[in-house]
Amino acid sequence: CEDVTIVPLYRMDRLELVRGTVGPFRPPQKTQVPLWLAVMLKQSNRCRIVAPKWLSYTHLRSLCKQEEQPESMFARLPTHYLEVAHILLTAAEDDIVDSQDIRRLLQDLREVRQSKTREGLRMLNPLQLQMDNLSAAEINEIRPLFAHTFNMLRQLDSLASASDELRNPGQFADQSYSEFDDTFSSSYL
Q1: Residue 72 has what pLDDT?
Q2: What is the DSSP string of 40-59?
Q3: Does residue 85 carry a pLDDT above 90?
Q4: Cβ atoms < 10 Å from Cβ of 84
Q5: The pLDDT of residue 172 is above 60
Q6: pLDDT per position as a tens digit, 15-29
Q7: Rounded distance, CA 26 to CA 21, Å?
Q8: Of 92, 81, 106, nearest in space to 44 by CA
Q9: Short-list 102, 77, 81, 75, CA closest to 35
Q10: CB of 154 within 8 A of CB of 126?
């Protein structure tokens, strides 16, 4: 569960939650609370939500520029940045400076990252795929294609192995596993 910072508008006592205690709430002291609680308090006009640093216009703009660089890695963002941004921009748009520009930058960032993901999938090999710093939503977008593509690569790899076996029929028949068997039995007995 994501935590966000709020500025309470009223004094409130501590709240006992399943995962621990939050509060006490004393205006204008900032307090970390779960995202769901921040939205609930915002909807009842009991707090202002402070946007996370990664959801600022300047930070998102620099991330977009970084992502657009050729051969650049995926920028590090919270795992659920798209979902959290959507919730915050929906529930607390009036608390977020430049909210419309931030929406546009998030869309730009998402499109650039999708393009990089598609390019990464074009370079698949049957042994490894490395795309660090993808968000949960980005992983879920490529999951069906990814599974299908890897199954096809495995089939092609097995066909290539079978083709090699047909071209060189005696090459693999001479290999003995007795050396492996001796090592296995002596080390585990």
Answers
A1: 78
A2: HHHHTTSEEEEPPGGGSHHH
A3: yes
A4: 19
A5: no
A6: 999 988 998 999 999
A7: 15
A8: 92
A9: 81
A10: yes
